[in-house]
TrEMBL record:
Family that this chain belongs to: Belongs to the iron/ascorbate-dependent oxidoreductase family.
Domain Fe2OG dioxygenase, residue spans: 169-270
UniProt-listed Gene3D superfamilies: B-lactam Antibiotic, Isopenicillin N Synthase, Chain
Superkingdom field: Eukaryota
Pfam family, any one: 2OG-FeII_Oxy
Coiled coil segments of this chain: none
Protein name as annotated: Fe2OG dioxygenase domain-containing protein
Species per Swiss-Prot/TrEMBL record: Sphagnum troendelagicum
Keywords from the UniProt entry: Iron, Metal-binding, Oxidoreductase
């Protein structure tokens, strides 16, 4: 007799590598064989096509040093292998966020944290560690800037449209380690419940153990890990900023019985007070304005923090981004 309730989370399709792959090689190796501008144009067009359709893309030959990635993974592994009492010392209490990025003690996402019931009402099977790691973040800041420029070019906009609010400074970007230990009953829980990311862009590195799933056409698609790749996805803020040209798509992480899994999520945003204004060229008869004409990350974040305080409220909200009010 089966004493365990039916498997709610394991009924998903697993189609290895169906998620489109974009090769950025020609961005870094410009030669006579690859005329710079046409190779770049093609990458920009392909990127926009994939992100408009999927909201997700796998990037290969992204230019980030493998050693930098391996170092991040090693540091994370070292941390998660520590006894619980030691990890607890790095803990931040939920809701201790502040809009001030100068005071890291009070800043959301710094330190060690286990959040229960955040994206999922059950007890999630996950151990989390938020930390800004300089070198990794620097490399990913550069990749983000490249992607944002390509997005603008592929949409027919001036190249600096989405990088301008950064004004030469790094935006509000953090890296988060997600550690999913082996789980004795993986079919009864989730590592991370279904959600969309509220930020601009997320660049995810998953180890060789799979677990990321994307909601598409009514099913959960498993994304098989691809060596030396990053998975990039659109967050709610970028969907709003592009007037819905790019989609912020629901995703989640499942766990398994035998192998621990580590993913590193890098979340990027412009500085908190920079204004994101929907480009006029992205508003026309076919694409009437669906979102706030302009907003700041700090305002959206404050709204999200209010929502997080409510016991059963939704944790991310496109509704706020869709409301007519501007800054
Ligand atoms: O671990 C994963 O594959 C997903 C992580 C994620 O979606 C997040 O941290 O927002
Ligand atoms: Fe996410």
């Amino acid at each position: 007799m089966n004493l365990v309730t039916p498997l709610p989370f394991r009924t998903s399709r697993c189609i290895p590598n169906e998620l489109p792959i974009l090769d950025l090689c020609n961005l870094h190796h410009q030669s006579d064989e690859h005329p710079t501008s046409s190779a770049r144009d093609k990458i920009a067009r392909d990127l926009v096509k994939i992100l408009s359709d999927w909201g997700f893309v796998q990037l290969v030959n992204h230019g980030v040093d493998t050693q930098v990635i391996q170092e991040m993974q090693a540091q994370a592994k070292k941390f998660f292998d520590l006894p619980l009492e030691q990890k607890e010392k790095a803990k931040v209490s939920p809701g201790s966020s502040s809009s001030s990025s100068s005071n890291n003690k009070n800043r959301e996402g710094f330190g060690y944290g286990v959040e229960s019931g955040f994206y999922y009402d059950g007890k999630p099977w996950i151990d989390r560690f938020h930390k800004s790691v300089e070198e990794y973040n620097r490399s990913l800041d550069m990749l983000t800037a490249q992607v944002l420029e390509l997005c603008a070019e592929g949409l027919g906009l001036e190249s600096s449209t989405f990088t301008k609010p950064y004004l030469g400074t790094a935006g509000e970007c953090t890296a988060r380690f997600n550690y999913y230990p082996p789980c004795p009953l993986p079919s009864l829980t989730l590592g991370l419940g279904a959600h969309t990311d509220p930020n601009l862009l997320t660049i995810l590195h998953q180890c060789k153990v799979g677990g990321l799933q994307i909601y598409r056409d009514g099913s959960w698609l498993s994304v098989k890990p691809l060596t030396n790749s990053f998975i990039l996805n659109i967050g709610d803020s970028f969907e709003a900023w592009t007037n819905g040209r790019f989609k912020s798509v629901r995703h989640r992480a499942v766990v398994n019985e035998t192998e621990a899994r580590l993913s590193i999520a890098y979340f990027s945003n412009p500085p908190p007070l920079s204004v994101m204004t929907v480009p006029q060229n992205l508003i026309d008869a076919l694409h009437p304005l669906q979102f706030r004409p302009s907003f700041t990350w700090v305002d959206y974040k404050l709204h999200l923090l209010e929502m997080h305080k409510k016991p059963n409220g939704s944790k991310t909200s496109k509704a706020w981004l869709r409301s007519a009010k501007s800054v």
